[in-house]
Fold:
Amino acid sequence: MSPPDRPGLLFRQDYFDDPAGWSAIKTLLIDIFNVDISALDGLGGHDRSSFPSAYFDGDGGCVANLSAFSMPMMVGGRVIKAAGWQSGAVRPEYRGRGLYQDLIHITLERCDEQGFEAIVLYTDKPGLYEPHGFRTVPQYSFKGPAPAASGKPRSARPLDIDADLDLLRKLLAGRMPVSSRFAVADQRLMFLLNCHLIEDIKLSLLADEEAVIVWRLAEDGAFQLLDVAGPRIPPLAEIVAGLGIAPVSVEAFITRDRLSWKSEAVADTGTQVFMMRAPDELFPSGPTCISPMAEF
Ligand SMILES: CC(C)(COP(=O)(O)OP(=O)(O)OC[C@H]1O[C@@H](n2cnc3c(N)ncnc32)[C@H](O)[C@@H]1OP(=O)(O)O)[C@@H](O)C(=O)NCCC(=O)NCCS
Structure:
């Protein structure tokens, strides 16, 4: 589909390699979402799989954008070819003219051309996407008493996002999805960016060097597990022992099937929802959670 003619606006695609374009999208995201993605510059720049579509004004400002990128997911035991959508925004003075609908139609068509089996996104406006076949996948966290620590108590090493970047990249490149039911299979750049954006998280490398654990302690002392990245997903009892901590309770923000731990699923009631556009068989039947480290 060719974009409708929008007088005074320039339609652009795949412009992140142009320094002026990259700077313009960063400004748009700060202005609209108050999110600064400059940390990506220290990580090698934008995701090379991105395919943004946008409108620019005559001064080179980005007034509307919608980006898609490749984000393979593990769904029901199989890695599927999925795309993530992000950075959907239109400047206030350009709203209500159909610009965003243009970008949705164009990006849907591009995703279909590339053969994506599913498209996923986060939004606080599900009504915007439902007419285009997206459905909310309810998200949960998992709460329960901490398991008795098992395995040799060996101390984990704290990792630093800057000093240990190469090691983190290696673990992310060879990671096993945290869940066989529903999880991100590869989202390495977002993980690294989120290390900069999410406050108070700790990264700890287990002594066998096979997994980095992303975690924090909640105010009530609960151990919050945000992600596990590496070639092996240890059971929760081993993670707790490996970190050398003895929490009373645990709250996990990943789908729990590989944790070998009894927990209760608690529905997330926040305004931000996770949506998916995919055939029925790809929708999970039980409670799931995408790690906050994969949030985009
Ligand atoms: C949401 C946003 C992108 C819409 O941009 P826009 O260019 O004004 O959108 P359009 O003119 O193409 O119209 C979008 C359509 O969605 C509808 N719409 C707008 N906001 C909506 C909402 N919150 N819920 C449901 N529908 C909505 C409009 O009524 C319009 O429907 P119509 O074509 O049947 O009249 C823009 O308001 C924005 O940037 N908001 C802040 C950032 C944001 O929320 N981004 C999307 C989150 S993922």
In short: The longest helix spans residues 19-33. The mean pLDDT is 95.
